[in-house]
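Researcher: We plan to redesign the surface later, but first we want a full-length starting point. Tokens attached.
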């Protein structure tokens, strides 16, 4: 089920950029296969989001019972609980169940120790995101559009959250999101479609998480669409990096590093008194 890596020029698919496909009988059967893989992938993503409800319920009650969590948690504690419940537990749990039900192993996800070259791709990916997001924000500013503000913006720009959030982004959020949305969702769609299609659809599948973060706070529809578009860019880079390196660890590291750098600017702002703008965390 694994794909051939672009780093292996001898592979028959190294130049085509498409994943090896199974035998197909007709165009109609191909279309059905594509529809099935997309629906399956989106279904897994939906289950991943829904799983946070029972996971969060159990986690909160355990922490309350053990006295770790107070009956009236702060905004920082609530945000941390949400991240651990969703990206740290729900996403990996759903991904594991999916792989088990399909009889798939780590070769489907393509998880392995990154090479020095792939570590360079991690850094290059983060730089690419920085350039794309900066240019996009300039365009948005020129157009006079005001991006929506996240409902959790106050927490994300809290130095107290940043101190805990940086390692959390590296160890839980980045790996957890990439495991489900690149490793499972994108790889599943990739079984029947070219890489560009799988990359875009995998990002679309994750859109609900971003949408919920912008609902409320008096945000306009244009502002919400603008903010989601800005967040969509890093996801595309992660998807491209995944396809290029054929190694899930690479986008996971890039994702965690990008979010961690954003939180590092919060600490820098607190130390220097500089204003911290809206965070394009993903």
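Model: Full-length starting sequence:
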């Amino acid at each position: 089920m694994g794909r051939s890596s672009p780093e292996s020029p001898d592979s028959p698919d190294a130049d085509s950029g498409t994943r090896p496909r199974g035998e197909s009988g007709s165009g109609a059967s191909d279309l059905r296969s594509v529809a099935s893989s997309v629906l399956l992938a989106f279904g897994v993503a939906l289950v991943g989001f829904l799983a946070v409800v029972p996971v969060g319920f159990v986690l909160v009650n355990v922490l309350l019972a053990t006295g770790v969590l107070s009956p009236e948690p702060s905004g920082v504690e609530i945000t941390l609980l949400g991240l651990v419940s969703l990206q740290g537990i729900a996403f990996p749990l759903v991904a594991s169940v999916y792989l088990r039900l399909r009889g798939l192993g780590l070769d489907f996800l393509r998880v392995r120790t990154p090479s020095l070259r792939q570590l360079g791709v991690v850094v290059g990916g983060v730089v690419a995101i920085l350039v794309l997001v900066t240019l996009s924000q300039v365009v948005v500013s020129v157009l006079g559009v005001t991006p929506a503000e996240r409902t959790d913006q106050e927490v994300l720009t809290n130095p107290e959250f940043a101190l805990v959030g940086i390692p959390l982004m590296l160890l839980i959020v980045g790996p957890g999101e990439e495991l489900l949305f690149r490793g499972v969702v994108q790889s599943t769609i990739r079984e029947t479609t070219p890489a560009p299609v799988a990359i875009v659809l995998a990002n679309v599948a994750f859109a609900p998480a971003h949408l919920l973060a912008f609902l409320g706070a008096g945000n306009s529809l244009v502002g919400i669409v603008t903010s989601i578009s800005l967040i969509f860019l890093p996801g595309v880079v992660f998807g491209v990096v995944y396809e290029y390196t054929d190694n899930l660890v690479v986008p996971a590291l890039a994702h965690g590093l990008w979010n961690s750098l954003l939180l590092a600017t919060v600490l820098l702002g607190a130390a220097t008194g500089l204003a911290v703008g809206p965070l394009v965390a993903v």
